[in-house]
Description:
Blueprint (H helix, E strand, L loop, with lengths): L1 H35 L2 E2 L7 E2 L3 H8 L4 H30 L6 H14 L3 H10 L5 H8 L15 H11 L2 H12 L3 H9 L4 H12 L1 H16 L3 H7 L12 H11 L3 H26 L7
Antiparallel strand pairs: 1-2
Amino acid sequence: MKKKLWEKYAAWIFLMPWIVGFLSLTFVPMIMSFYYSFTNYNLLQPPKFIGIDNYIKMFTTDLHFNNALKVTFIYVFASVPLQLLVSLILAFVLNKGIKGLSFFRAAFYIPSLLGGSVAISILWRQIFGMNGILNMVLDVFGLNTGTSWVANPKTAVWTLVILRMWQFGSPMIIFLAAVKQVPAELMEAAEIDGANKFQRTIRIMIPMISPIILFNLVMQIISAFKVFTESYIISGGNGGVLDSLLFYTLHIYNEGFGKMRMGYASALAWFLVFIIGILTALVFWISNKFVYYD
């Protein structure tokens, strides 16, 4: 009898730490932030309910809102496709059975572990600064413009796009695992039928791993929208010159903790959830035309 009871409740017992953590650290804070989005709350005094005023302010009087959205969308729609393309190409290369495959997989994964750190953000600011490594290299060829790439409003966001591309390790490992699962007999049959390497890749390999491409695309879109550390460190927390590095998450942080407008910051955060939800649904809807599940 005791054994049956243990088997019945064992799963719930092992799940309990995760359930407690999810409820206390994720679900309850989400509900509270949703309520705060309808209040005037400065962290020091009790929240005061003001209806949808925060959402109205977002679209009418917030001078930084539109630019924060613009910079974030440029970053997401530029960095995610480029990152996935680099990841996919490297997965194809590593699938060739080169010597030291384990070493290269580990080495290529390191940027994903370090790319979002404070140390790498500081290093990136030095590389693309006025006296950085990039300008030193350009100076050799007489191409140094004498400007800081991270301080120039025309190029600042693109330095972070490059940083995002450099963090290709995580999607590359997933792509590599998917490529290795493609049946070899399909590739051999296509080769016998006269298909060259490019045709085999486009007509067989890509369709076979298309569900994994969709997975990586969705995960990287969500991750790119949440980028914060790089923007905060490289811009010094103020969004850079002309808000050129004012990412949406940095704008939320500045409103919530810089200006003590936690109610308004909560409204901004929930609007970001709405944007990510719409884009994710759109990607899944479009995926019906290019994802092959058979």
